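yo, Methyltransferase domain-containing protein is done. seq:
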Amino acid sequence: MLNTAAWNRIRYTAYAPLYDAIANRAFRRPRRVALGQVDWEPGMRVLLVGAGTGLDLPFIPRELEIHLTDLTPAMVKRATRRAHRYQRDVTCHVMDAEALTYPDEHFDVVVMHLLLAVMPTPQQGLAEAYRVLRPGGQLCVMDKFQPDGQPAGISRRLANIVTSILATDITRQAAPLLTQAGFQIRHDEPVLMNGLFRALLAAKPE
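structure:
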């Protein structure tokens, strides 16, 4: 199956000029719901991983230290412009979510929206999120997931061959991914398309 960091960089470079037109309105409420689950406190250090063009920024409090990463330079360029437009002090970097360059236990909150279903190895991405979170830190996830107690059937797995090449994996399950990475799930809420998209808040044990 064609799902590599190199391919993701190519296709999201192509998608970048159209991304806001497609994703902004459709995911505005799910982003707000997901980020509304986080227990925000002034001065928190926050990492937005695979943040695309920065569409999460309007729903994040201002009194925070925000770092934003994405695999694709074209996306980071647009995210930087959005941060300036909203007058947000955001540090933006091109970075692979599966190989973050931040030190251990550096962040209070990690946000991964519409990412776990896209990255080649979500287990590695979650391992990196776990590593850079401090004990007790929060992980905010919003994405499309196969129901946890219902493995994907043959038709979904066949469709996934196409969807993974063009956009996203449709067979991944949220709870197994998060718990196997060591996270404790605190909240899980359906946010779009009859529960296909879910917002989850998890924590790294103290």
